Amino acid sequence: MSPDGATRWDLALVADAAATALRDERDRLEREQSTRGLDAPRELGLHPVLGAGLSRAGFGVHREVRYPAGAHQRKRSAGDRCDLVLTPSPDDVLAETGAAETLFAGSGVPPDRALWIEVKAVRQSALVSGVASEDPGYASRLSGPAVKDVAKLASDPLVACAVSLIVLFCVSEDVARHDLGVWAHKCLDAGHTIGPPRLRGFDIPDRLGNQWCAVAVTQIK
Protein backbone atom coordinates (compact mmCIF):
# COMPACT_ATOMS: atom_id res chain seq x y z
CA MET A 1 0.00 0.00 0.00
CA SER A 2 1.14 3.50 -0.75
CA PRO A 3 1.82 5.57 2.41
CA ASP A 4 0.45 8.58 0.56
CA GLY A 5 -3.09 7.22 0.87
CA ALA A 6 -3.11 7.58 4.64
CA THR A 7 -2.30 11.28 4.50
CA ARG A 8 -5.64 12.01 2.84
CA TRP A 9 -7.69 10.75 5.77
CA ASP A 10 -8.20 11.96 9.32
CA LEU A 11 -8.50 8.60 11.05
CA ALA A 12 -9.18 10.27 14.41
CA LEU A 13 -12.28 11.83 12.83
CA VAL A 14 -13.33 8.42 11.51
CA ALA A 15 -12.96 6.93 14.99
CA ASP A 16 -14.89 9.83 16.56
CA ALA A 17 -17.73 9.50 14.05
CA ALA A 18 -17.99 5.73 14.53
CA ALA A 19 -17.99 5.98 18.32
CA THR A 20 -20.53 8.83 18.29
CA ALA A 21 -22.85 6.82 16.05
CA LEU A 22 -22.74 3.83 18.39
CA ARG A 23 -23.17 6.01 21.48
CA ASP A 24 -26.20 7.68 19.91
CA GLU A 25 -27.65 4.25 19.12
CA ARG A 26 -27.11 3.23 22.75
CA ASP A 27 -29.02 6.31 23.87
CA ARG A 28 -31.84 5.68 21.40
CA LEU A 29 -32.30 2.14 22.68
CA GLU A 30 -32.39 3.43 26.23
CA ARG A 31 -35.01 6.06 25.43
CA GLU A 32 -37.16 3.39 23.82
CA GLN A 33 -36.60 1.13 26.85
CA SER A 34 -35.59 -1.63 24.49
CA THR A 35 -34.95 -5.06 25.95
CA ARG A 36 -32.04 -5.41 23.51
CA GLY A 37 -28.86 -3.47 24.07
CA LEU A 38 -26.26 -2.12 21.69
CA ASP A 39 -24.34 -5.38 22.00
CA ALA A 40 -27.30 -7.55 20.95
CA PRO A 41 -27.37 -7.22 17.10
CA ARG A 42 -25.18 -9.37 14.92
CA GLU A 43 -22.24 -7.64 13.24
CA LEU A 44 -24.16 -6.77 10.07
CA GLY A 45 -26.73 -5.00 12.21
CA LEU A 46 -24.10 -2.44 13.21
CA HIS A 47 -23.11 -1.58 9.63
CA PRO A 48 -26.09 0.76 9.00
CA VAL A 49 -25.47 2.50 12.33
CA LEU A 50 -21.80 3.06 11.55
CA GLY A 51 -22.55 4.05 7.96
CA ALA A 52 -25.11 6.66 9.04
CA GLY A 53 -22.69 8.13 11.57
CA LEU A 54 -19.87 8.38 9.05
CA SER A 55 -22.25 9.99 6.58
CA ARG A 56 -23.26 12.60 9.18
CA ALA A 57 -19.55 13.35 9.61
CA GLY A 58 -19.45 14.37 5.94
CA PHE A 59 -18.03 11.28 4.26
CA GLY A 60 -19.41 9.45 1.27
CA VAL A 61 -20.30 5.99 2.53
CA HIS A 62 -20.53 2.91 0.27
CA ARG A 63 -21.39 -0.53 1.63
CA GLU A 64 -20.33 -3.97 0.41
CA VAL A 65 -17.99 -2.76 -2.34
CA ARG A 66 -16.02 -5.33 -4.32
CA TYR A 67 -12.28 -5.11 -3.81
CA PRO A 68 -10.72 -3.47 -6.87
CA ALA A 69 -8.32 -6.33 -7.61
CA GLY A 70 -11.35 -8.62 -7.99
CA ALA A 71 -13.36 -6.28 -10.21
CA HIS A 72 -12.61 -8.41 -13.28
CA GLN A 73 -14.96 -11.09 -11.96
CA ARG A 74 -17.86 -11.37 -14.39
CA LYS A 75 -20.46 -12.41 -11.85
CA ARG A 76 -21.57 -9.52 -9.67
CA SER A 77 -21.72 -11.89 -6.70
CA ALA A 78 -18.11 -13.03 -7.17
CA GLY A 79 -15.08 -11.58 -5.44
CA ASP A 80 -14.42 -10.35 -1.91
CA ARG A 81 -16.31 -7.30 -0.79
CA CYS A 82 -15.31 -4.65 1.72
CA ASP A 83 -17.77 -3.75 4.48
CA LEU A 84 -17.54 0.04 4.13
CA VAL A 85 -15.70 2.29 1.69
CA LEU A 86 -15.44 6.02 2.39
CA THR A 87 -14.99 8.79 -0.14
CA PRO A 88 -14.19 12.42 0.70
CA SER A 89 -17.61 13.76 -0.30
CA PRO A 90 -21.17 12.38 0.00
CA ASP A 91 -21.67 13.14 -3.70
CA ASP A 92 -18.78 10.93 -4.84
CA VAL A 93 -19.58 7.99 -7.08
CA LEU A 94 -17.86 4.63 -7.24
CA ALA A 95 -18.12 3.70 -10.91
CA GLU A 96 -17.54 -0.04 -11.08
CA THR A 97 -16.49 -1.48 -14.42
CA GLY A 98 -15.29 -4.85 -15.61
CA ALA A 99 -11.56 -4.19 -15.31
CA ALA A 100 -9.65 -3.78 -12.08
CA GLU A 101 -7.56 -0.93 -13.47
CA THR A 102 -10.66 1.12 -14.27
CA LEU A 103 -12.87 0.08 -11.37
CA PHE A 104 -13.40 3.68 -10.38
CA ALA A 105 -13.13 5.10 -13.88
CA GLY A 106 -14.70 8.24 -15.31
CA SER A 107 -16.17 10.56 -12.71
CA GLY A 108 -15.79 8.00 -9.93
CA VAL A 109 -13.24 8.05 -7.13
CA PRO A 110 -10.17 5.83 -7.81
CA PRO A 111 -9.48 3.12 -5.23
CA ASP A 112 -6.31 4.75 -3.94
CA ARG A 113 -8.32 7.83 -2.93
CA ALA A 114 -10.92 5.88 -0.97
CA LEU A 115 -10.72 4.55 2.58
CA TRP A 116 -11.44 0.83 2.81
CA ILE A 117 -12.86 -0.37 6.12
CA GLU A 118 -13.45 -3.89 7.39
CA VAL A 119 -15.72 -3.98 10.45
CA LYS A 120 -15.51 -6.66 13.10
CA ALA A 121 -17.83 -6.81 16.13
CA VAL A 122 -16.62 -8.99 19.01
CA ARG A 123 -18.47 -9.68 22.27
CA GLN A 124 -16.95 -10.96 25.48
CA SER A 125 -20.43 -11.96 26.66
CA ALA A 126 -23.37 -12.96 24.49
CA LEU A 127 -26.44 -15.15 24.41
CA VAL A 128 -25.08 -18.70 24.51
CA SER A 129 -27.81 -21.33 24.10
CA GLY A 130 -30.31 -18.66 25.11
CA VAL A 131 -28.44 -17.69 28.29
CA ALA A 132 -26.35 -14.54 28.80
CA SER A 133 -22.84 -15.75 29.55
CA GLU A 134 -19.22 -15.39 28.48
CA ASP A 135 -18.82 -16.27 24.81
CA PRO A 136 -16.43 -19.23 24.49
CA GLY A 137 -15.50 -18.05 20.98
CA TYR A 138 -14.51 -14.54 22.07
CA ALA A 139 -10.72 -14.97 22.00
CA SER A 140 -10.73 -16.97 18.78
CA ARG A 141 -12.69 -14.26 16.95
CA LEU A 142 -10.06 -11.69 17.87
CA SER A 143 -7.18 -13.94 16.88
CA GLY A 144 -8.91 -15.40 13.81
CA PRO A 145 -11.47 -13.42 11.75
CA ALA A 146 -10.31 -10.02 13.05
CA VAL A 147 -6.75 -10.80 11.92
CA LYS A 148 -7.95 -12.24 8.60
CA ASP A 149 -9.68 -8.90 7.88
CA VAL A 150 -6.28 -7.23 8.12
CA ALA A 151 -4.80 -9.73 5.67
CA LYS A 152 -7.63 -9.11 3.23
CA LEU A 153 -7.12 -5.34 3.34
CA ALA A 154 -3.35 -5.61 3.01
CA SER A 155 -3.42 -8.02 0.07
CA ASP A 156 -5.14 -5.79 -2.51
CA PRO A 157 -2.47 -3.82 -4.43
CA LEU A 158 -4.98 -1.19 -5.55
CA VAL A 159 -6.02 -0.24 -2.02
CA ALA A 160 -3.79 2.58 -0.77
CA CYS A 161 -5.46 3.33 2.56
CA ALA A 162 -7.33 0.84 4.70
CA VAL A 163 -8.34 0.42 8.32
CA SER A 164 -9.69 -2.25 10.59
CA LEU A 165 -12.65 -1.02 12.65
CA ILE A 166 -13.19 -3.29 15.64
CA VAL A 167 -16.23 -2.81 17.87
CA LEU A 168 -15.42 -4.66 21.08
CA PHE A 169 -18.05 -5.26 23.78
CA CYS A 170 -16.55 -6.34 27.08
CA VAL A 171 -16.64 -5.93 30.82
CA SER A 172 -14.32 -2.91 31.19
CA GLU A 173 -12.01 -0.44 29.46
CA ASP A 174 -8.97 -2.22 30.90
CA VAL A 175 -10.07 -5.51 29.35
CA ALA A 176 -10.67 -3.78 26.01
CA ARG A 177 -7.18 -2.25 25.97
CA HIS A 178 -5.54 -5.52 26.93
CA ASP A 179 -7.44 -7.67 24.44
CA LEU A 180 -7.02 -5.22 21.57
CA GLY A 181 -3.31 -5.23 22.37
CA VAL A 182 -3.32 -9.01 22.02
CA TRP A 183 -5.06 -8.64 18.65
CA ALA A 184 -2.42 -6.14 17.51
CA HIS A 185 0.38 -8.53 18.44
CA LYS A 186 -1.39 -11.32 16.54
CA CYS A 187 -1.41 -9.08 13.47
CA LEU A 188 2.29 -8.29 13.85
CA ASP A 189 3.13 -11.98 14.40
CA ALA A 190 1.32 -12.74 11.13
CA GLY A 191 3.62 -10.30 9.32
CA HIS A 192 1.17 -7.39 8.95
CA THR A 193 2.24 -3.79 9.51
CA ILE A 194 -0.33 -1.76 11.42
CA GLY A 195 -0.43 1.71 12.89
CA PRO A 196 -1.38 2.73 16.44
CA PRO A 197 -5.13 2.33 17.03
CA ARG A 198 -7.40 5.32 17.42
CA LEU A 199 -9.29 4.03 20.44
CA ARG A 200 -12.63 5.38 21.69
CA GLY A 201 -14.99 3.93 24.27
CA PHE A 202 -18.03 4.42 26.49
CA ASP A 203 -20.20 2.64 29.05
CA ILE A 204 -23.14 0.50 28.00
CA PRO A 205 -25.95 -0.93 30.15
CA ASP A 206 -25.20 -4.43 31.35
CA ARG A 207 -27.68 -6.78 29.72
CA LEU A 208 -25.46 -9.65 28.62
CA GLY A 209 -22.46 -9.09 30.88
CA ASN A 210 -20.79 -6.41 28.75
CA GLN A 211 -20.39 -2.96 30.30
CA TRP A 212 -18.00 -1.24 27.88
CA CYS A 213 -17.97 -0.59 24.15
CA ALA A 214 -14.56 0.04 22.60
CA VAL A 215 -14.10 1.31 19.05
CA ALA A 216 -10.62 0.75 17.59
CA VAL A 217 -9.71 2.23 14.20
CA THR A 218 -6.34 0.87 13.10
CA GLN A 219 -4.52 1.70 9.88
CA ILE A 220 -3.29 -1.22 7.82
CA LYS A 221 -0.01 -0.26 6.12
What are its keywords?
six-stranded mixed β-sheet, two-stranded antiparallel ribbon, 221 residues, single chain, alpha+beta
Considering DSSP H and I runs of 4 or more, what fraction of the residues is helical? 25-40%
Q: What is the strand content?
A: 15-25%
Structural class: alpha+beta
Strand order of the largest sheet: 1-2-3-6-8-7
Largest sheet: 6 strands, mixed
From the N-terminal CA to the C-terminal CA, the straight-line distance is 6 Å
The backbone outline, from C-alpha atoms, is globular
Please give the radius of gyration in angstroms: 17 Å
Number of domains: 1
Average pLDDT figure? 88
Low-confidence stretches: 1-7, 74-78, 97-105
Quick summary of this structure?
The protein is an alpha+beta fold and 221 residues long.
What does this structure look like?
The protein is of the alpha+beta class. It has one domain. 31% of the residues lie in helices and 25% in strands. The strands form two sheets. A six-stranded mixed sheet has the order 1-2-3-6-8-7, with helices on both faces. Strands 4-5 form a two-stranded antiparallel sheet. Helix 1 crosses helix 2. The longest helix is centred in the first third of the chain and has 21 residues. It starts with 10 loop residues before the first helix and ends with a strand. The N terminus is likely disordered.
